[in-house]
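User: My collaborator sent over this chain with a note saying "see what the structure looks like." That's all I know about it. Can you take a look?
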Amino acid sequence: MVKEIRLFLLGIEIRIAYDVPEPIPKEDLLELLQERGFIKAKIQKLGKLSPSLEIIPVNIAEKGGCDVIYDPDAGHIGISGKNSGEILDRIDEIEEILKGINSPIKYYQLISTYRVSSKTMKKPLFFISRFFHTKNFNKIGEIMGIEVAPFSIRFYPKNKMETIENLQMNTGWLDIEIYPYPPNPQYYSIHIVFRDESQKVKEFIKEMDNRIVHVVKLIEVEER
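Assistant: Without extra context I'll predict from the sequence alone. Here is the result:
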């Protein structure tokens, strides 16, 4: 029987963000990782350019289906992969490895991306447009000279409405965007950013699939 809502997790990443750049020398981090069964990355994924225009790889080690991410300039150390359970296991190992670092932790950050299908299929554009009932879109259409409809649903914590902090570093932050998957708009795309303390991020991951299913059901519900 076809599931009512089917989730495809395309990628998930947890980063530990420190208050200082290079919280640990890369060589020392690699040595500690190898002591815990991680191996040096076989294929390095390209990251950003250094001041000398050298390409700095973002992944330095791996274990199972997970990569260890290290961005010394930003002070970020983390794990990326495609399985939330494995990600949680690996981040526990990373936390254990990094217990000796004296630098304070600013926050933990989750980034995940899903593709989602529902039995309705072919209708994400319709359902997202229907979700908003406002005359403002008609006014925008008048300005643009063409009828328009909302393409995405995006939300954040209401208690952050008056913040003046950098939103890319704001703690206690949640940013979720739901929009049609551009190459095939029969599917939804969902992008999630959540930034908080360790335990809250881990608990959010455990409930993430269920919450996405309930949000998609809410978008598609007929009663308005």
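A starting point for your reply to your collaborator: The chain is about 30% helix and 35% strand.
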